[in-house]
Amino acid sequence: MGSTTVPKPYAGGGAILARGGTAALPLIRSESVSGLLVTTDSGEHWRTVLAGGIAWKNLKRGPESLVLEILSDGRLLVGEEGGRYWLAGDHTNTAFRELKTPTTFTSLTVHGTTLYGMADATTATYDLVKGEGLYISRDGGRDWRRHQ
Known about the structure:
Layout: E1 17-19, E2 22-29, E3 32-39, E4 47-49, E5 66-70, E6 76-80, E7 85-88, E8 96-98, E9 107-111, E10 114-119, E11 133-137, E12 145-146
Antiparallel strand pairs: 1-2, 2-3, 3-4, 5-6, 6-7, 7-8, 9-10, 10-11, 11-12
């Protein structure tokens, strides 16, 4: 087990996320996320993801709201809490597709290759949220089922 240094121009970026041979680092500029620095070969080669289907300009809430997860198969999930989400088509993480969710999720996370989305109130009120509950997708976000 060893370590790999992040390329110097990006060493001061956001928090790095790593799993298996994949690692991703958000590129932060002017208090917003403008892309990712990604490796899929344990740090041998790094590349930037500035497009690939992700609408970076639509991430309005800043780096603190960024959702960045790595599925067990090496694919990246990118998005914003309470906003839009994109999933990589394969482990190369070069092309992403936007997830169609059944409702607005206040959080989205992964376990293995299963996606878990939660719709809930963001404040301590007793008001119900439209579509409130836990949703599960086992096919990359194509179909969602509500957990009972």
